[in-house]
Amino acid sequence: MTEPLPLSKDERSQIRLAFMRLVPVADEISVALYRRLFEIAPEARALFPEDLTEQRAKLIQMLIMVAGSLEESEILGKLARESGARHRGYGAKPEHFEPVGAALLYAVQTTAVPTPSADEMALWVRLYSHVSYHMLAGLEAA
């Protein structure tokens, strides 16, 4: 897998604005993400506790961490690799990253207000590609 090109200054700015619109609906996004993930990848359900309250909070924390690290791609990559290494201990596998990305995009698309444009969704794809690339590197190195 080839490392994605770094996000441009303009892309980082647009993503920060998109994140700010998600803050009021962060909990709804976390609910939608896990609901969608378990619909498209039911085998992933076994990797999570029955009560997803803490897991949803961790997801929101991860999104906050990503948003806070957008300006420092080295720090963002390092944090994502560390997260990937932790996820290995949870039983995550490389094949889980595609359905998680699809579930994240679905949750953003269906929950954010106003509904994200196609250009904004393309930025979410770029951001997820960047983060998942480094998480996978951490997962495989652990």
Please name the defining characteristics of this protein:
mainly alpha, 142 residues, 0% strand, single chain, globular, Globin-like, 6 helices
Question: What does this 3D model show about the protein?
Answer:
This protein has 142 residues and is an all-alpha fold. It has a single domain, classed as Orthogonal Bundle (Globin-like). It is 71% helix and 0% strand. It has six helices and no strands. Helix 1 packs across helix 6.
Q: Per CATH, which architecture?
A: Orthogonal Bundle
Q: Considering the protein shown, what is the CATH homologous superfamily?
A: Globins
Q: What is the name of the CATH class?
A: Mainly Alpha
Distinct helical segment count: 6
Main structural class? mainly alpha
- The helix content is over 70%
- Unreliable stretches covering 5 or more consecutive residues: none
What is the terminal-to-terminal distance? 17 Å
Question: Biggest sheet: strands, sense, closure?
Answer: none
- As for the number of domains, it is 1
What proportion strand?
A: under 5%
Any idea what the shape is? globular
Radius of gyration: 14 Å
Number of strands: 0
Q: Could you name the CATH topology?
A: Globin-like
Topology (elements, then pairings):
Blueprint: H1 9-22, H2 26-40, H3 53-68, H4 73-89, H5 97-111, H6 118-141
Helix pairs in contact: 1-6, 2-3, 2-5, 4-6, 5-6
